[in-house]
Amino acid sequence: MSAEASARPVSITACPDGPLLVRGDLALFDDDGEPVQPNRRTFALCRCGASAIRPFCDGSHKLVGFRTSPPARTPAVTFDEAP
Ligand code: FES
């Protein structure tokens, strides 16, 4: 089985009052274009700006009282393979 065939589809779930939960096989890059290794197949991206380990969430959104407005909606957005 090729690497492409075994790739998991990517989904991003906006957690209410919290991070973006990312699942699937994808490449992540910092603002210099350097690859960032999440070291997990599922990880949370900070969207409150308070994390000490950006771009990842460290739970600080709870300490700063981050609120999503309007509330995040479910279900997750899933990206299908390009045609
Ligand atoms: S969303 Fe969790 S620390 Fe920012």
TrEMBL record:
Gene3D superfamilies in the record: CDGSH iron-sulfur domain, mitoNEET-type
Pfam families (UniProt xref): zf-CDGSH
Record's keyword annotation contains Cytoplasm: no
List keywords of the entry alphabetically. 2Fe-2S, Iron, Iron-sulfur, Metal-binding
Which stretches make up the Iron-binding zinc finger CDGSH type domain?
A: 22-67
Show the SMART domains listed in the entry: ZnF_CDGSH
InterPro entries for this protein = FeS-contain_CDGSH-typ, MitoNEET_CISD
First and last residue of the signal peptide: none
Kindly provide the name given to this protein in its UniProt entry.
CDGSH-type Zn-finger protein
Organism lineage string: Bacteria, Bacillati, Actinomycetota, Actinomycetes, Micrococcales
